[in-house]
Write a structure and sequence with these properties.
By secondary structure, the protein is an alpha/beta fold. It is built from 11 helices and 17 strands. The protein is globular and about 60 Å long. The two termini are 14 Å apart.
Length: 404
């Protein structure tokens, strides 16, 4: 069987979306002409009946795979009781889930949001409010080159994607950037206007580049010595993605403010902003949102956290990580590629001198495999955290053919 005839659909399947009209959908990305209609675990099916092995999972969103039964059950049960009573009131799921996240993270206060970008906006607002109260009006937040914090105007300003530098001017001010893993550069950037340093433990969108444990430990010491805050954007690295519940655990530090998203809802749209008690200085009216902390999403979040905290779950994530890493390293050796980067089930394969990631992704799709190429020279792997070894092996076999 050749790569172009690799069997990924049943004989009776029909061409996907052959008569679909996509014209009403606003173009914000280059989507293939496929319409997905069903998902289960590591697999998606399109409207033509063809199935695809998904190693993107909504960009690390579907931590338990597509349509996990626990999420379907909680959505049905909670939606029959209470969906949203307004963030002006408490609901039992909001209270219970906030407490559970606080216990798990070691941070004392939790604000439930709808997206990672929204949570990061809240983190910046909280830090600036704290700076106004405790650091003479300091407002600048040092961020990292090639970092990614979301697509709101402020978060695009805070991110370090060079292709955004000329977009949507004027940018929101107050986000000086320094290189990743350069502690001296971070120290030199601190002024009397600095209120915080903000970064991802692993830069996912730029190609899975980890902050070293030594660097994170140095940043924690640096921020403490200067009396400023450390903000960790764990939207992609949190919720067991790196083999620990939170990415910061690998370095043994703890932030003053942390944000979560993506896998926090196993596919349901939600996020969270967490902070130490001493930093939680919002007053009524400073922060809010119509759907924030709604009972439906909070109930899902609590169920997902319980699933990720189950005995043996993290052990399985790390075992799958080793299996995937070893397979990618073998492919790299076979095809003369580069190193494997990342932790847990957030990994990247450096393509070495090749710059055809987009073509590899395209050929993978044609052969029933969903991959992500964050850069021309890298592939990123974000499978479900409960992916099986057999599914990893199947992905590696398809990728081997595609690379050839």
């Amino acid at each position: 069987m050749t790569i172009d005839t690799l069997e990924t659909k049943s004989p009776e399947s029909k061409p996907a979306a052959e008569a679909a009209d996509f014209s009403a959908v606003m173009e914000i990305t280059n989507r293939p002409p496929i319409i997905f209609s069903r998902g289960e675990g590591s697999w998606l099916w399109d409207t033509g009946g063809r199935r695809y092995l998904d190693f993107i999972q909504g960009w690390a969103v579907n931590c338990l795979g597509h349509c996990p039964p626990v999420v379907a059950r909680v959505l049905a049960e909670q939606s029959a009781q209470l969906i949203n009573c307004s963030p002006a009131f408490y609901s039992a799921p909001m209270v219970d889930y906030s407490a559970a996240l606080a216990r798990a993270s070691g941070l004392q206060r939790c604000f439930l949001a709808n997206s990672g970008a929204e949570a990061n906006e809240g983190a910046v607002k909280l830090a600036r409010k704290w700076g106004a109260m405790h650091r003479g009006g300091a407002y600048e937040i040092i961020t990292i080159e090639h970092g990614f914090h979301g697509r709101t105007l402020a978060m695009m300003s805070a991110s370090g994607k060079t292709e955004w530098d000329a977009l949507f001017e004027p940018k929101v001010q107050g986000f000086p950037r320094v290189p990743l893993n350069d502690l001296d550069a971070a120290a030199a950037a601190i002024t009397d206007k600095t209120v915080a340093i903000m970064l991802e433990p692993i830069q996912g969108e730029s190609g899975v580049w980890p902050a070293t444990d030594t660097y994170l430990q140095g940043l924690r010491a640096l921020t403490e010595s200067h009396g400023i805050l450390l903000i960790l954007d764990e939207v992609q690295t949190g919720m067991a993605r790196t083999g620990a519940m939170f990415g910061f655990e690998h370095s043994g530090i703890r932030a003053d403010i942390m944000t979560l998203g993506k896998g926090i809802g196993a596919g349901a749209p939600m996020a969270a902003l967490l902070a130490r008690e001493a930093v939680s200085c919002f007053e009524p009216g400073d922060q809010g949102g119509t759907f924030n902390g709604n009972a439906l999403m909070a109930a899902v979040g609590l169920a997902v956290l319980e699933a990720l905290s189950a005995p043996g779950f993290l052990d399985r994530v790390n075992a799958a990580s080793r299996h995937l890493r070893q397979g990618l390293e073998a492919l790299s050796k076979t095809h003369g590629l580069g190193a494997v980067r990342g932790k847990g089930l957030l990994l990247a394969l450096d393509l070495g001198t090749r710059t055809d990631a987009a073509k590899i992704v395209e050929r993978g799709l044609a052969n029933g495999l969903l991959l992500n190429g964050p850069r021309a020279d890298s592939l990123r792997f974000m499978p479900a955290l409960n992916v099986s070894d057999a599914e990893i092996d199947e992905m590696l076999a398809i990728l081997d053919k595609v690379l050839a």
